[in-house]
Structure formats: C-alpha cells, structure tokens
Amino acid sequence: MCDKILMGFDFGTNGVKALAYSTSMERVAISAYKSYPVVTPYKNQAEHNPKDWWNAFVWCVGKLLAEGTFQKDQVAALCISSHTPTLTPVREDGEPLMNGMIWADGRAVEESLELRRDYGNEIASVNPALIRPYHIISKLFWLKKHKREIYNRTAMFLDCSNYITYRLTSRFTIDRSMATNYHFYNIFEKKWDERLAKKLQINLRQFPEVCDCHEAIGCITKESAEELGLSEHTLVAAGASDTAMAALSAGIFNRYQMAYSCGTGSSVVMLQKCTEREQYKTDSRLITIGYADKDYMMNIGVMSNTGGAFKWMKEAVCDMETLCAVTLHRDVFTVMSDYVTEAPIGANGIVFLPYLAGELSPIYNPNARGVFFGLSGTSTKKEMLRAVMEGTCYAVRQNVDIVLDAQEVRPNEVQEIVATGGPCKSSAWMQMLSDILGIPVTIQENTEGAAMGDVVVAGCTAGVFSSLKEGVEKMKTIGRTYLPDSGAQREYEINYQTFCELQKCLLPCFDSHIQRQESRQK
C-alpha cells in the first residue's frame, strides 16, 4: 500500500479527467472521466453550468476511491486544471449567478474591438496579448453592457478551476497562468494592475487572490470532505490552465523545446521569458498565456480540428472500416491510420483544409470551413484519409513557423517537439508530422496530458517534490522519437505551399459563403 496519493483533475470542454498516482509516480487507480454538456442558448454562445463541473468532479473522486488501491487518508494533495478563459459570476457564498461563458463563446466581438480601439496601447503595456472575444476582459464588458444586474450583483468573477477550488476550500484564488488571461493582470510585475483597472472601471475586489500554481491554498472543508469521501487534511493546490499543465507534463523548461498537445483540436507551445518588458516578443496571430513557472509565458498556436477531422472522416465515410475493426477486435482509427500509409505522400495532389468548426490560429475565422482541393475521378478513400492527416499537419506547420519566427528561433535550433494526446498513438501520423516540420517529434509513453501535470503540481504542494522540474523528471517516460526524413519533407513542401495559397485565397470566400447561407435561412 502506498504512503501518499496525489490526485489530478483536468476540466476540458466536454468533461473532466481524473488521475490518482502514488508519490513514486505509479498509477493506483484507473483514470476516471465524466462528461458534461456545452450549453448553446444562441448562436456564437457557449456555456457550462458550474454545477455540472462540481457534479462531474464528485463522481470522478468517487470513481478513483472505489477503484483505487488506497484509502482516503492517504490522499495528500490534489490539483485542478481547466479550460480557460471562462467568466463565471458568483455571489459571496460562491453560488453562480449564471452559467460560465467558456472559451468557445464568441458573443463579445464588439466589446473586444472597442477595447482594442479605446485602450489598446495601455493594455498592451501590461499584457501584450491581442484582445479577442473569448478573453475575460471582453466578456466582462459584454456582461456589463447586456446583463448589468448580474454584473452589479457579482461578488467574485471565477474561472472553471477556481470555482472548484473555492467549493473545496471556501477561498477565492486564481493561479498566475489563469490570471494572464485577464488583460488587467500585469504579466511583468505578476499582479493585478491597479492603474489599468481604475482606467477600465474594473473593481479588483471582484477578482481572486493571485497565487503560484503549486501553492497550497488550504485543506478541504468538512462539508466538501464529507460529500467527496476525502479527508479534511487533503491539501488543495491553486491549480492552473489546462494548456499550462499539458506543457508541464511534456517537460518543457526552456525556449528551445516545444510541446504539442493533440486531441479533437491541438496546440503548439513554446516558452518565453516575461521578466523584462523590453525583451518580450509575441505575435498577434498567437495566443499568449502564462506557464506553470511564473517567469515564463507560453506562445501558443491553437487549431480547432486535428483528431476531430479524422473522427469526422470515420463517421462520414468509414462505415465499412468501423465494421471491419469491430470484427477483427481492432481500433478503427488504427485501421484508418494503416490506410493512410497505403496512399503516396501528397495524396496524389489532394489538399485538405481542416476547418470543420472554423479556425483559431493563425486566421481566427469562425466562418472558415473544411475544403478538399484536387479531387479527381480517380481519387480514393485512402488518398482522402491521407489528405486529411496531412492537412492537420500543415496547419501545425503554419503555427510552428509563426511561433519560431516570433521568438527568433530557427527550426534547426529546436531540440524536439514533445507530443501528447490521442493522435500520438498513430506512428504514421507522428512520422508525417516530423517530416513536415523538419523537427524531431518525441512521444511520451505517458499520454495523460494536463491531468498528469496536475499530479506533478499536487506533488509539489504536498512537499513530495522540491520543484516542478523534479516532479516532471520523475514522471516523464520517453517513448519513441520520430526523426524527420529530408526527402519526404521536400515532397510534402509541394502540397504545403498549395495549402497556404488555398487558405489565403479562400479567406474572403468563407465569410461571403456563410453570409449567403444565413440570408437563405431568414
């Protein structure tokens, strides 16, 4: 039986994933997952009911306790990470006044543009990240304009993870990685900026105390301990953003490493020091938020559809492959991945734009749509599958190029890209990615992503690890490294140039097409 147990919980867009590990970094329970719905009351609106977060959390804790080889008194600490930015107004007792407006909510377009126009320079001196509709500050101004009664009644504005930590400890806190999504948090001075908040007429008393991610913000209250079945002595870490925890689990600690987290969508991450304002560089096409180490920011390129595009192909055209996989007791995505290797590099001229749900970096266009280009009467399903996989890798290549350019790093200076997530199980996909990027891609055997980062942070909170780096080194399990093939890279370059040209040419078409579709429906 283990001496101490560390728990990690990662709240994603569609559900929460939970892990329990011993202090020797051995898993002591089957990972738990509980889904919850995204509420979409109107177009461009996306919300979560905060009580769904809590109920899913309670269920996951119960699952770990029921299936784990440990007792509740052994749980030393837990850490929560979550999607961000989510604006959740609550009363003094933490009771939500409305659903949380999650990262996918796009209703605050007008407010984001007004903030850029009226306060752009002042905000950039404190936090250079370009203000977008999903940012907290945009949502805050939307709420102030459209739901003034709720705005006035709000005692505290919370994100997803710190709603859960409040329910656990009765303390309002936020870690620095999450706080960087609030444009009145000064990323250089590491605090809420009182001067800017005053100019924006923002009351800082409505925002949580800022902590380091591994700081112990308290123990679980008696009421929550009884509901969860945990000990009141269990420490709670301040927590962090899911992207920060995924990057931490990948083990990146310098500007010559990159992390690639892939699932339905995907993101590429590179670190940049934020200790000196004059040396800080970014690019408006990137998302910029804080890392687990407070002295670094993450330059991030985020893509909406990666594994999601392959899943769409499965559901749209791969019924026979699905039936075959079931009959042979194989995973259908493995069968589809095998098909990809049977088609030539370049998919016989087919190029795919993976914009099935709009796109984030680098074009930030919700109207973007998926495109197959170069189809002919002889095109095959295998070639189309390969084109989809290649298209997702070309999208990654675009973002990697932008990240490297922003930080003035050449591709041959990058030590490796550490990849985590479901698509990493496909050797064809990872070799393709390495060839297209021209950079080694290393896969971790442990592919738990952000939830594993949470376990490491919980270990620091409990005093098991002296630093985040020590925890990562004990956790990190290197699997295979895929080295780029220069010959394949030259072949991919042909379709990559077409991919970039198509994207540029079709940008105005995406908008006009959606406008015409909407006018038809009226």
From TrEMBL:
Q: Which InterPro entries match?
A: ATPase_NBD, Carb_kinase_FGGY, Carb_kinase_FGGY_CS, FGGY_C, FGGY_Carb_Kinase, FGGY_N
Q: Where is the Carbohydrate kinase FGGY N-terminal domain?
A: 6-248
Give the signal peptide range. none
Q: What is its EC number?
A: 2.7.1.17
Database matches in Gene3D superfamilies = 3.30.420.40
Q: Which domain of life is it from?
A: Bacteria
**Which one of the record's GO molecular function terms can you name?**
D-xylulokinase activity
Q: Does the keyword Kinase apply?
A: yes
Keyword annotations from UniProtKB, A to Z: Kinase, Transferase
Carbohydrate kinase FGGY C-terminal domain spans which residues? Answer: 258-460
Look up keyword Transferase and say if it applies: yes
Q: Write out the similarity annotation.
A: Belongs to the FGGY kinase family.
Q: Which PANTHER family match?
A: SUGAR KINASE
- What protein is this chain from? Xylulose kinase
